[in-house]
Design goal:
It holds the Pfam family FAD_binding_3. InterPro entries: FAD-bd, FAD/NAD-bd_sf, RIFMO-like. A seven-stranded mixed β-sheet has the order 6-5-15-16-17-14-18. A six-stranded mixed β-sheet has the order 8-2-1-12-21-20. Strand 1 (about 5-10), helix 1 and strand 2 form a beta-alpha-beta unit. The protein is an alpha+beta fold. It contains ten helices and 22 strands. Helix 2 (about 50-55) packs parallel to helix 7. The radius of gyration is 21 Å and the shape is globular. The chain has helices at about 10-25, 50-55, 60-65, 105-120, 165-170, 230-235, 280-295, 305-325, 335-345, 350-360, and strands at about 5-10, 30, 45, 70, 75-80, 85-90, 100-105, 125, 130-135, 140-145, 150-155, 155-160, 180, 185-195, 200-205, 210-215, 220-225, 240-250, 250-255, 260, 265, 270-275.
Length: about 375
C-alpha cells in the first residue's frame, strides 16, 4: 500500500498500528479527539506475552519491560467467614514463550512509549483533531475537525481505532450486536500496605461476586469488583495508605458484524468490547493493529475481516464465559465457580489451557 493510511484514535491500538506501518514503510497520519495532555488514569493495566512479541520489531518491548512489573502467577482465593484463603495457584513460569509473565504497566505509559517511538520515526499524533464524518464506500472520504475547523481528506485507507463509541462505525451503519451486564463494576487504584504476593494476580471468590487485585508499581495496587464497597472487601492485612483513582462502570460484550467496509477497517474497542477479566482488551487491539499492518504491506487487506472477526469473536465469547463464572452471575454458575473451579485449576492440562488463554498464546488468540 503506497498511499497514506489515516488512523483515527491514538490509544494503544492506533499507536501500535501507526508504529508497525511506519516501520514497514507505509505513510500514516494519526488523529485523536483528546487533548494534548497525558493520560493519568491507569485504565487497562496488563500487556501479555503475545503483545510483547508483536511489539518487539518496533523496538519498544525492552522499554515496556523495564518500566513494567512482572506478574508470574495467578492466585485463586476463597472468602469464607471473614477470611481469605488461598485455594489454588497457576504459575506462568513454564509457559512455552520467552516472555513467561504478564507485564503490569498502566495504559498511559504504554501509550507514551509507543508515541515516543513514533516521534522518533517522524510521526506526530494530531491531538485535538477528530474524525467527525465519513463517506464511502470505496476509498474513504473522511471529515476531520480540528483547531482550525473542518477539512475533508481522502486517505487510501482508514483504520478506525476510535473507541467504543466509534464515529466510523456509526457512520457506516454497522451493527454492534451483544449485550450489557446490568451490574456496576467498581475499580480503584490504591497505595497499599499488604502481605499479598506482589508477583501474583489475585482473584477472590466471594458470595457477592469476586474481587481482583494486582500490583502495578511501587506499593500501587489495582482492585476491581462487582461489590459496591471496594474498601470494605479488601483481604485482611491490606491497609490503604492512599487512593490514587476510582471509577465505576458497566461492561458490554459486543463484536461488530463487519470489520471492514470498502477501505475502512475497524480495530480495538471500535470492533469489540468485553469485560476486563482476562486482560485482553488492550492486547486484542494491539493484535488487530499488527495484523492490519502486515496485511496492508502485503497487499492482502481484503482478508482483514475474515482474519480478525473469527479470532476476536472467539476471545469475546471466552471472556464472557469467564465473567459469568467469576461473578457467579446466576445460581447455575456459583457451584461451578466455588466447587469445581479450584479443583479443575489444580489439573496440569487445565492449568496449561488457562495460562495460554490468559496470556494470549492460545490458538484462538493468535494473530497469524
Amino acid at each position: 500500500m503506497n498511499g497514506t493510511t489515516l488512523i483515527a484514535g491514538a490509544g494503544p491500538t492506533g499507536l501500535a498500528a501507526g508504529l508497525a506501518l511506519t516501520r514497514l514503510g507505509c505513510p500514516v497520519r494519526i488523529v485523536d479527539r483528546g487533548p494534548p495532555t497525558p493520560l493519568t488514569e491507569s485504565r487497562a493495566l496488563a500487556v501479555n506475552p503475545r503483545s510483547l512479541e508483536l511489539l518487539e520489531p518496533s523496538g519498544v518491548t525492552g522499554q515496556l519491560m523495564a518500566e513494567g512489573h512482572r506478574i508470574t502467577r495467578m492466585h485463586l482465593h476463597r472468602w469464607h467467614s471473614g477470611r481469605t484463603r488461598l485455594v489454588q495457584e497457576v504459575p506462568f513460569g513454564d509457559l512455552p514463550h520467552r516472555f513467561p509473565f504478564m507485564l503490569a504497566i498502566p495504559q498511559g505509559r504504554v501509550e507514551a512509549v509507543l508515541e515516543a517511538a513514533l516521534a522518533d520515526q517522524g510521526v506526530t499524533v494530531e491531538r485535538g483533531t477528530e474524525l467527525s464524518g465519513l463517506a464511502g464506500p470505496g476509498r474513504p472520504r473522511a471529515t476531520l475537525h480540528g483547531p482550525h475547523g473542518a477539512v475533508e481528506v481522502h486517505p487510501e485507507a482508514l483504520l478506525a481505532a476510535d473507541g467504543a463509541h466509534s464515529t466510523a462505525r456509526h457512520a457506516l451503519g454497522l451493527d454492534f450486536p451483544g449485550y450489557r451486564y446490568e451490574a456496576d463494576w467498581q475499580l480503584a487504584d490504591y497505595r497499599l500496605e499488604t502481605d499479598l504476593a506482589p508477583d501474583a494476580g489475585h482473584v477472590v471468590l466471594r458470595p457477592d461476586g469476586f474481587l481482583f487485585m494486582m500490583r502495578f508499581g511501587d506499593g500501587l495496587w489495582r482492585a476491581m469488583s462487582t461489590s459496591r464497597d471496594l474498601d470494605a472487601i479488601l483481604p485482611e492485612g491490606c491497609r490503604i495508605e492512599a487512593e490514587q483513582w476510582r471509577s465505576s462502570f458497566r461492561i458490554s460484550h459486543r463484536v461488530v458484524e463487519h470489520f471492514q467496509v470498502g477501505q475502512v477497517y475497524l480495530a480495538g474497542d471500535a470492533a469489540h468490547l468485553h469485560s476486563p477479566l482476562g486482560a485482553r482488551g488492550m492486547n486484542l487491539g494491539i493484535e488487530d493493529a499488527t495484523v492490519f499492518a502486515h496485511l496492508a504491506t502485503g497487499g492482502r487487506l481484503a482478508q482483514y475481516h475474515m482474519r480478525r472477526r473469527k479470532v476476536d469473536r472467539a476471545v469475546v465469547r471466552q471472556i464472557d464465559l469467564l465473567t459469568r463464572i467469576a461473578t457467579g452471575a446466576s445460581p447455575l454458575w456459583r457451584p461451578v465457580r466455588d466447587l469445581l473451579l479450584p479443583s479443575l485449576l489444580g489439573l496440569k492440562p487445565v492449568q496449561r489451557l488457562a495460562r495460554r488463554r490468559a496470556t494470549g498464546l492460545s490458538p484462538s488468540g493468535g494473530w497469524d
